[in-house]
Amino acid sequence: MPQCPLPPTDKAGLRGEALARRNALTPEARAAAAEIAAGHAMEWLGEVCGEVVSVFAPIGSEIATAPLVERLRAGGAQVALPVVLEPGKPLMFRLWEPGVALEPSRGPGRFAIPAPPEGAPAVTPDVLVVPLAGFDARGHRLGYGAGFYDRTLALLRRVKRIEAVGYAFAVQELPAVPDEPHDERLDAIATDGGIIRPAEE
């Protein structure tokens, strides 16, 4: 009798599985899903007037954040983007004013990441919209292995109340993501399939 392969349980295998599903989406499906996910995210966030919300500049096949940025600004939020200072350190955040062109900045790997220019004010966000390679319904996320968001969330949560919202396509959901003591859980996950509100563990 042929043996069926077991689903991956290691982070690298799970990451590959979730990213393969993300990469398989057509451009039309991506665009439609990004609009829907932005609406779900705003439903969960509620009143954002005066809040500083950090989003991310999508790289590769990541979900587009432009529809969410448009809604955030219309709601009176200040939008920021993360900046990598150096490996092993938390992220910093710069304000992204409307109409300001983004510039390439050092990324966690070999990719440059669009960020506000160096002269943009540094800010401390109230909400982090977090990119995901994969996620589960418990609020555990798979990133890309560099640990920037875990370190950043741990630091921010020690000094203030902050909400962390995962943002991804629904197809990136996994049955379970292995978690370690240093992993920071998300408060919610917004996708084109709706909002996932993790239960307390």
Q: What's the SSE blueprint?
A:
Layout: H1 11-23, H2 27-45, E1 52-54, H3 66-74, E2 78-83, E3 92-95, E4 103-106, E5 112-115, E6 127-131, E7 134-135, E8 141-142, H4 148-159, E9 163-167, E10 188-191, E11 194-196
Protein described:
This protein is of the alpha/beta class. It has one domain (11-196): NagB/RpiA/CoA transferase-like (Rossmann fold, 3-Layer(aba) Sandwich). It is 26% helix and 21% strand. It has 4 helices and 11 strands; from the N terminus they run ααβαβββββββαβββ. It has helices at residues 11-23, 27-45, 66-74, 148-159; strands at 52-54, 78-83, 92-95, 103-106, 112-115, 127-131, 134-135, 141-142, 163-167, 188-191, 194-196. It has a 7-stranded mixed sheet, sandwiched between helices. Strands 4-5 form a two-stranded antiparallel sheet. Strand 2 (78-83) and strand 3 (92-95) form a beta hairpin. The longest helix has 19 residues, at 27-45. The protein starts with 10 loop residues before the first helix and ends in a 5-residue tail after the last strand.
Q: How many distinct folded domains?
A: 1
Helix percentage range: 25-40%
Report the sheet-strand fraction.
15-25%
Query: Helical region count?
Result: 4
**Order of H and E elements:** HHEHEEEEEEEHEEE
Provide the gyration radius in Å.
17 Å
Give the strand order, joined by hyphens, for the main sheet. 3-2-1-6-9-10-11
Mean pLDDT: 90
CATH superfamily label: NagB/RpiA/CoA transferase-like
CATH class: Alpha Beta
CATH topology: Rossmann fold
Main sheet summary: 7 strands, mixed
- Please give the alpha-carbon distance between the first and last residues: 40 Å
Low-confidence stretches: 1-7
Structural class: alpha/beta
Task: Assign an overall shape.
Answer: globular
